[in-house]
## 1
Amino acid sequence: MLFRWNTIGTAFQAKTNIRSFKEFTHFVNVHVVTAGAFMGSTLEEIEFPDVTVIQWNVFRNALLVEATVPATITAIREYSFYCTTLTKLTILATTPPAVTIPPANTTCLFYVPAASVDAYKNASGWSSLASRIYAIP
């Protein structure tokens, strides 16, 4: 079953029975993940398909451990991945997405395409995270 929406609302907010959401790949044409969409959920892992914007507080206070953001991402808003459990955020975009405030907690490691590591480390909004930006293994 495919779902055809342009945004994800807050239907998954504070859900305590979700652990992995690899099924998100079935959501086609979802370009924006709405603010607070998974806030406070027990979701531990997610892979986004063709998302271009992840709004603020999407995973705030969630139990997320790992996330993969697609090459189509252009912006990651404030505190999008601010959950103390997040250890790994993989961003497949070769051009650093726009950020104004670091999108994740202080212990999260960021993995980006090898050819883009320097671009991320020097990009506005990302340079303060340079010591935690690595090439995707």
## 2
Amino acid sequence: MRTKRLFAAAMVLLLTACGPLHPSISETAGEDPYFSNQTPPSLEKARAFFQEGKYSEAIGQYRKLLKGQDRNIAERSQYQIAYTLAFYKNPKRDFQEALNEFQLFIRRFPASRLKEDAANWTALLSQYLAKRSENEKLRDDIKKLVDIDIEAEQKQNQRR
């Protein structure tokens, strides 16, 4: 009974705590609380690229926005670059590069309200990359063991 209650409590906590991980995906220009009522056309263009699945173009547009004078737009753009690099629908996603971009975001914008999200992404991506590296090593070890086993079996068959 206690296990069921713990499970139910965990599910409620999980479901109520899970808001959108990425604040701007569902936001339109007028709803974005991060900016004033004036959203620059270049930011709209980057968002449109993202929503159309043109992820490389979106990243390119966000990179252009990093060079501008508006710190809020640069902050959001840096976050969006990292997010887009990790986005599951992006066929060219690059988790290592996304991790680097999230780390850069945290260094450049330590007071950002998106810092916790970026830190969460950094932790998850770091763990994923470490596990992927471990898996690759294990795969290599298994291949070596299989090769050794095949070689031993061949030697044994030759003796017969």
## 3
Amino acid sequence: MPVGSSHGVAIEKPCYKKVKKKGKLVRVKVGCPKPKLPPVPAPAPAPPPPPPGSTRSNPFPLGTAASVTGWTIKVNSVQFDAWPVVQAANLFNDPPASGWADVVVSLTMTYTGTSTGTPWLDNDLHYVGASNVSYPLSGFDHYCGVPPSPDLLDFDTVLPGGTVTGNVCFQVQTSDEPTLIGFWNGLFSSSIGPWFALR
């Protein structure tokens, strides 16, 4: 029924219609039509999740090959707190300073360009943890030394389709180790990515 108000109190009003009785039009009480409610809009579909590797929160799983400029790159394995293996690799390697740790990353790189590539020179894989400071750091203050064999530096010229697997070593703050993740940051790129899980 239609709803009115009296002194702030909602009251229902009856509905009438005019009918002819004995040649006269009279009003008779009838059931009120149900009000037409607007249709309830369907909920918007949830946005699709970002594709793997496209964000820091959704990196490529460890062991997944991804395409970057001129290369396909894969993080095979990662050794954290790796001073024992770094020490065994070369007796002249120095242990990390207090609050720092060695990290050894095994990479496989396949050259997809059309001329030649140099793995260690073209490798633009960086690493970052909770501090949001990327590694490896420039300079030799936290230089890892000679990594376990095979060293990625041992490979020079690679022709199209050639694949190499080698280790890189760098030092990170121990507070960054639990959250460390890899990302590609090309020299002339305006954006970073893809992202690579290290665990």
